[in-house]
Amino acid sequence: MRTTVGIIGAGPAGLLLARLLHNAGIDAVVLESHDRAYVERRQRAGILEQGTVDVLRAAGAGRRMDREGLRHDGIELRFDRRRHRVDFPGLTGGRSVMVYAQTEVCKDLIALQLEEGGPLLFEAEALAVEDADTHAPRVRFRHQGREDVLECSWVVGCDGFWGVSRRAFPAGLGQVFERTYPFGWLGILADVAPSHDELVYARHDRGFALLSMRSPSVSRLYLQVPDGTDAGAWGDEEIWDELERRFTTADDWRLERGPITQKSVTPMRSFVHEPMRHGRLFLAGDAAHIVPPTGAKGLNLAVGDVVTFARALVHLEQTGSPELLDSYSETCLRRIWQAERFSYDMTTLLHRLPGATPFEDRLQLARLERITGSRAAETDLAEAYTGFPLDRG
Ligand SMILES: Cc1cc2nc3c(=O)[nH]c(=O)nc-3n(C[C@H](O)[C@H](O)[C@H](O)COP(=O)(O)OP(=O)(O)OC[C@H]3O[C@@H](n4cnc5c(N)ncnc54)[C@H](O)[C@@H]3O)c2cc1C
């Protein structure tokens, strides 16, 4: 099998890249280790930055998002039983975000790829990327019980944190920057209308809580829990009781309860692999970097990477100049480190660190007071939340 761009992974990064290349007339093959139902069901991100929304629309993948997505013009910060709304358009000159689940983005892109695009092979597991530093890189993969080889001009590893692409970098070439946090998020999906029409980020002495949503009738809620927590160990009523405690306000706000349809625990990690290119192999999305979900940046960073790659390859085809491909890693990393910084800031602002001293607790509250009391500090948060531009940090 032969193609111009071999794409490993059909998460948002791989699927969007395939769409962008198709629109530019460049052929590509996508290899995905799981089946279609798994990819379309996996619950993850839900917040699309303004730039991501614009990219999906321009790629012809925004029709259902525009119909069913929920435009959000702000978030609420909650601490000390108080509520503070951050008004995005007012602080950023009109920017907002869209609540539209990653599962739906993937469904839309898969449907488009199967109807109009090149091959998308499910249950095709990449085993290794070979000859990445030559003009003819190859992906060895297994599909329907048989081993095969995909011969490419370029390979893009969009295979997430646990994929094989990163392993093709020679030892000693890559450098890893990493931080793990001693807590995770217990996330639930519940069949109940969201109790607030915007996301609520709550800092509480018992830990962080987040109220989010997937649609007008489905709530997504998270609780900070100790590292290694088993989701099954939490009873449904116990979860609602704890959420209620952490969201408590001084006014008459109420948390609506409903049937919990899914429970899982997500570990929290910051991770960056530099550089993001080795020869003709490029890393994109979670394959190269992870952010804790507090800043809602992971999916948006994946989008930024593949837009940068597609633009660079089109530039090469049109002008013969590899200049943009050569600066791929540097261009992406500028934006990635801004997102790493913001996600770290949001995480340490809102979560209770085990063993935090009273001094640290007071500092956390002082940081929240600063954001809610200073337009400059609040603008900084609003700009970062609604998204960093795709072409610079
Ligand atoms: C609970 C949670 C909440 C989140 N919330 C947000 C949010 O609100 N906003 C946000 O922007 N981000 C959020 N994120 C992060 C976001 O989901 C990820 O950053 C995003 O999925 C990255 O996309 P990707 O395509 O790079 O990787 P992935 O989505 O991980 O896709 C990688 C794909 O590669 C496939 N694959 C792996 N290995 C191989 C192989 N060897 N061969 C072939 N295929 C392979 C996998 O099956 C998978 O389909 C959240 C994440 C979690 C876990």
TrEMBL record:
TM region positions: none
Keywords, in A-Z order: FAD, Flavoprotein
InterPro entries the UniProt entry points to: FAD-bd, FAD/NAD-bd_sf, RIFMO-like
Domain FAD-binding: 2-343
Record Pfam families: FAD_binding_3
Superkingdom field: Bacteria
PANTHER family: P-HYDROXYBENZOATE HYDROXYLASE, TRK SYSTEM POTASSIUM UPTAKE PROTEIN
Protein name, per record: 4-hydroxybenzoate 3-monooxygenase
